[in-house]
Amino acid sequence: MRTLTKAGLFSTIVTIICALFSTASIATSHSWQFKGIAQSYYQSFDQSLSRESTFNLGIYWFADYLDNVSLSFGYNYTFVDMSPNIEVDEHILHLGGKYSWFSDTLSGKFSLALDGYGGKYTTTTVTSSGGGGMGGMGGSSRITSSESTDISVLHPQVSFINYAKTYYFDIGYAYSEYDSGDLYDIEAHQITPTLGFGWNNAYDWLQLRGYFINLNQQTQLLEEDDFASAELKYIHWFVEKSPPYFHNLQLTLLAGDRVLAVDPDAKAVYSVSDKQTGSVSVAGQWALTQSLKFMFLVGYDKYENDLLADEYDSLLFYANFQNQW
Question: Which of 78, 147, 242, 308 has a CA that sits 20 to 30 A from residue 171's CA?
């Protein structure tokens, strides 16, 4: 029995986002800021028994009213080339909202965010059979079979950052459901506590986030149902000058195990990967104009597939353009 449907998920999120819109109903056009992001990545796998490559395209739209209300919408398409003769297509929609309020007592800003994700991935298997014509004549035929899994994710998060931007914390909870009909119904519960520290007049930032994930059952691909990992992210911003210029540099490290993770910063659901056991990435962002920025990231990841006793790694290349109005 499903405890969360996509219709119910998006009905809840749309209701909350409409309430956020009502708080800004008197807004004039100059009170809003908009940002669009177009992104893509390619990931190649080395010495994997089950995966060849992954390709992704995504687009996100953000709208911010003053410092109080933020709205976001996104779409992600992911294609995974498996081996042998298996392909995965995934389509994910994102819808989110955030409301912030200011505290004089604690000299900082509280935010309450709610993100929702819904979609599906389809696994297609192609096999060939020998010819069966008269006299042994006849060519081979291709047999295609597919299995679909519906994805529903709900992710609330509460956060606080002080006005000087020297410290930050948040706590988030993600409920994810993967429904494959009669095959299986997996529920994932994720807790993500985060601490952040800024210095050098907010030009340097260090963030530590924990991922604690529990599955309602073991699967044939995973011999365990509890996973824990820690992510360390460092960002340095450079002193602004006339574009074009190098805007910031990022370094991210991940240690531990995670699977079916939800990344609140990237607005991403990692639903079509094996168990991730480690990662390191370096990214740089350039300000091409006053409003247009370009980011390029190179990442190295390690994975495990318990069913195949397969340990392998990958190289990832990610890029995005973002423009602000």
Answer: 78
pLDDT of 121: 93
In the predicted structure, residue 5 carries a pLDDT above the cut 60 = no
Give, in order, the Cα–Cα distances in Å from 169 to each of 244, 266, 303. Answer: 33, 17, 29
Q: Where are the domains of the chain?
A: 6-24+45-324
- Token pair 């639903």: residue: 271
The fold of the 6-24+45-324 domain, in CATH, is Porin (2.40.160)
Where do the DSSP E strands lie in the chain? 32-46, 51-65, 69-82, 86-103, 108-129, 141-162, 167-179, 185-199, 204-215, 226-237, 245-258, 262-263, 268-269, 275-287, 292-305, 310-324
* Phi, psi angle pair for 14, to nearest 5°: -60, -40
- Residue type at 25 in one-letter notation: S
Q: How far is Cα 296 from Cα 258, in angstroms, rounded to an integer? A: 24
pLDDT 10s digits, 28-44: 456 889 999 999 999 99
Residue type present at position 171: I
Assigned token pair, 130: 């020998």
- 188: which 2 tokens? 């994932």
Please provide the average confidence, as pLDDT, over all residues in the chain.
Answer: 87
Query: Are the CB atoms for 249 and 283 separated by under 8 Å?
Result: yes
74 close to 38: Cβ distance less than 8 angstroms? no
Residue that has been written with the tokens 């994805």 in this structure: 151
CA atoms lying within 13 Å on the CB side of residue 250: 18
Residues 6+ apart with CB under 8 A from 261: 190, 211, 213, 269, 270, 276
Helix intervals (H) in the chain: 6-23
Tens digits of residue pLDDT in 171-209: 999 999 999 876 678 899 999 999 999 999 989 999 999
Convert 187-204 to b/e letters by CB count within 10 Å (16 or more is b).
bbebebebebebeeeeee
Backbone φ and ψ of 6, nearest 5°: -65, -35
Predicted confidence (pLDDT) at residue 227 exceeds the cutoff of 80 = yes
**Is the sign of the CA dihedral 298, 42, 57, 267 positive or negative?**
negative
Say if residue 249 is exposed, middle or buried (CB neighbours under 10 Å; 0-12, 13-18, 19+). middle
